[in-house]
Each structure stands twice: as C-alpha cells, then as structure tokens.
Amino acid sequence: MVGVLEPITFSQEIDGNVYELIIPKEFIRDVQFSGEHLNIMLRVTGPDTGKITDFFEDYEEQEFKIKTTENTGEKISDEFILTSAYIDEGPHLSVDIDIEPPSVRAILDFKKK
Fold it and tell me: pTM of the full predicted structure?
C-alpha cells in the first residue's frame, strides 16, 4: 500500500464550471499508480461523506484532473478518465446511543487521458 505526502485534489469541469474536491491524506488508504492506470482507495468519515458520493457517483467515463504526491516522491498531476467507482456508504444514522459516525468507502479506478 502506498500513501501520499499531501492531499489529493480532484477537479472536474461540468457545463463550463470547474468543481474541486480535496481529500485530506488521513482519508486516503491506498494509491497505486502505474503510468496509465491510477487506483485510489478512500475511507471518509464524518459529515462530509456525501461529497464523495456526489462527486464520483454516476460520473464514470468522465474526465478528472488529479494532483498529489505519492510517499515515494512521485508527483501525480494529470488528466484521467474515471473507469469505475465502487462507493459503499455506512453506517447509517439510527436511534442507537453508541452510533458510529457516517462513513463512505470508495475505490476509484482511472486511466490516463
């Protein structure tokens, strides 16, 4: 597993507007980059979990600009196409006293444009 030295910044242009999502490095579980293919695994907890779903769900085959630096020092800064996005939300709110905060796991596969 490879982490990152800085947050990952995702940018996407939709109808002429640029939207940006910055994922802090503490939520990044793994980054695998092999020239043309990029795989990112995230686990986000807290009130911002919906931002992950909104930003990536139903955007397969769309273009994203991604910027970060791997632990190995290799910079990633390029345009990629989202080839698949597995997003798993949970646990959901309930009436239990010892409730876990909302969380989302995402496995994102990209190919270099």
Answer: 0.86
